[in-house]
Design brief:
It is a single chain. By secondary structure, the chain is of the alpha/beta class. It is built from ten helices and ten strands. The strands form two sheets. The protein has an eight-stranded parallel beta barrel with strand order 1-2-3-6-7-8-9-10, surrounded by four helices. The protein has a two-stranded antiparallel ribbon with strand order 4-5. Strand 8 (179-183), helix 7 (192-198) and strand 9 (201-205) form a beta-alpha-beta unit. It is globular. This is Aldo/keto reductase. Pfam families: Aldo_ket_red.
Length: 277
């Protein structure tokens, strides 16, 4: 059975597209309030046995918060991953558009790797391309790929959209990545076969479909954890209460609900229309 991990997409910035994110954070969304909240959730997660933590350069101050927690707690046995390729542009506003902008060029990689290393130091175990797609061309960019290989850090790729399977296959063919992070949940299962044949470490993101499956969180996460190709399934909790509920997945029988499956194109169209809150 896969391990449950914690992603910081909802903890590092005041706005995110998860349904109910704003109410989960509460009234005070200041930098200091989110820093305290992030550290409290990280403490709870570690005490509960979570050892996998995932963040990104575009998660507001997610890397900063995680790095401060790591240096102050010195936790043992953790695995830390981050991602490059998006620039956070919301300036700590909840619904500023666009909240983040994709940049998959070599200059952005070098700059963001330097920033990530400043935040996470020697704790960085995996550095991933953030949301690689055929349209971005990043997996065809020799300058970027060469710079990544030369960076001397284990490499991964995260994927999104209707082309997840195609992108995973392309990433595998390059033979430079040790891990892939993909969306898989009871609504969107299209990447499953590609993940199964990839031979890479698989990190499942958006297991609750950005909050659409929150009402059945333990069951939804239990099914994801039970997939034979899954190694880590990320919780996106922004509060101790929600993380406590997510942790019930570790004790919940994985009873699948195939009738919840959606067409991939419909799923991603709906996701793109979710409001940042």
């Amino acid at each position: 059975m896969a391990r449950l991990g914690l992603g910081l997409a909802s903890l590092g910035r005041p706005g995110y597209l998860n349904i109910g994110h704003g109410s989960e954070l509460g009234e005070d969304k200041s930098v200091e309030a989110l820093r305290r909240r992030a550290h409290e959730v990280l403490d709870f997660a570690y005490e509960a046995g979570i050892r996998d933590f995932d963040t990104a350069r575009s998660y507001g101050r997610g890397e900063e918060f995680l790095g401060q927690w790591l240096r102050s707690r010195r936790p043992e046995g953790v695995t830390v991953s981050s991602k490059w390729g998006y620039v956070y542009t919301a300036d700590w506003e909840v619904a500023k558009q666009p909240p983040e902008v994709k940049h998959h060029d070599v200059d952005t990689f070098r700059r963001q790797l330097s920033e990530t290393r400043e935040n996470l130091g020697d704790w960085l175990d995996l550095y991933q391309i953030h949301s690689a797609t055929p349209e971005s061309g990043v997996l065809e960019n020799d300058a970027v790929l060469s710079a990544m290989v030369e960076a001397d850090v284990p490499l991964g790729v995260s994927v999104s959209g209707t082309s997840q399977a195609e992108t995973i296959d392309r990433a595998v063919a390059l033979n430079i990545f040790s891990a892939v992070q993909a969306t898989w949940n009871l609504h969107e299962r299209a990447a499953g076969d590609a993940l199964a044949r990839s031979g890479l470490k698989v990190i499942v993101k958006e297991g609750l479909a950005n909050g659409r499956l929150a009402a059945r969180d333990a069951q939804a996460l239990a099914v994801a954890l039970a997939q034979p190709w899954a190694d880590v399934v990320l919780s996106g909790a922004a509060s101790i209460d929600v993380l406590r509920s997510n942790l019930r997945a570790l004790e919940t029988p994985p009873e699948d609900e195939p009738g919840l499956t959606e067409e991939s194109s419909a799923y991603w169209k709906l996701r793109s229309n979710l409001a940042w809150n």
